[in-house]
Backbone:
């Protein structure tokens, strides 16, 4: 297995020892939550980037307004 097709990446030993049918069931069960979590992370990073842009580029007191 290679990370981005370039860097050799070790396989997780205990996952390799799971029987294929169980692995497929777990893959199906966690596919949607994994996808939703990744999109939420993208949105959060974009939101954080916007707040930092307002703070440091636009010189708005954005972070001071959010802090207690």
Residues:
């Amino acid at each position: 297995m290679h990370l981005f097709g370039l860097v050799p990446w070790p396989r997780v030993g205990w996952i390799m020892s799971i029987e294929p049918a169980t692995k497929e069931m777990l893959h199906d069960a966690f596919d949607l939550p994994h996808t939703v979590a990744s999109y939420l992370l993208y949105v959060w990073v974009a939101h954080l980037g916007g707040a930092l842009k307002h703070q440091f580029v636009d010189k708005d007191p954005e972070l001071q307004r959010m802090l207690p």
Notes: Helices lie at 13-16, 20-56, 62-66. Residues 19-66 form one domain. The longest strand covers residues 2-3. The chain has a mean pLDDT of 94.
